[in-house]
């Protein structure tokens, strides 16, 4: 059993609509109960729902985040985008940056670095995603890829106290496959070894579910989980938190 302060981040990706708000009553109740122990819940719905989630979570401790942002801190002619000031303005406290689903569409480490800087300037906490692809893993490049993503992604950012890292191996996302416990322990240790002074929190993401959480929770250098599919089902999300603390 752990008593650690852990973060449970729900990444809803491009799912959810106004009727999804009804499913949150249960999680709000849970967040106010003793069962939550040392856990902090954070929801990252699509931008269209952030404002409604903020209203819904008004009287509880559940955090809210965006799933991406434009790199500019200023308003401008960027059709289809929102920046971090806008996210903050509608109630977000966090933003996910560098998710592999966006890296796959061409976001590179330099762009991610600009996005992280603009998020910090807007006083949002950043959930900075890193992770290797299956072919990089097969070529034994995991550590060099992670080093590069961290180095360029956090270039010229001195104060890292509002940055969480989320290690999400691309091959583990949505596949039902998770890394071997010992590999994951070592990779998280490697990520933390890249920092001097205050070590950022490191979350794990990729196929986290109520079945595998019993193994994942034993990896004692992980500070929380970034959960995709299973987080859209309130019962599963709550179950993951409860099992982490049981
Ligand atoms: P799944 O939990 O659906 O594998 O997604 C993980 C993820 O991408 C969270 O950001």
Strand order of the largest sheet: 1-2-3-4-5-6-7-8
Strand content: 15-25%
Question: Tell me, what's the shape?
Answer: globular
| Stretches with pLDDT under 50, minimum 5 residues | none
Main β-sheet: number of strands, strand sense, barrel status? 8 strands, parallel, barrel
Report on the structure:
By secondary structure, this protein is α/β, with parallel strands linked by helices. It has one domain (6-245): TIM Barrel. It is 35% helix and 16% strand. The protein has ten helices and eight strands. It has helices at 24-31, 47-56, 84-89, 100-103, 109-121, 134-138, 142-153, 181-193, 213-216, 234-244; strands spanning 6-11, 39-44, 63-66, 94-97, 125-130, 163-167, 202-205, 224-227. It has an eight-stranded parallel beta barrel, surrounded by four helices. Helix 1 runs parallel beside helix 10 (234-244) and helix 5 (109-121) crosses helix 7. The mean pLDDT is 97. Bound molecules: 1,3-dihydroxyacetonephosphate (13P).
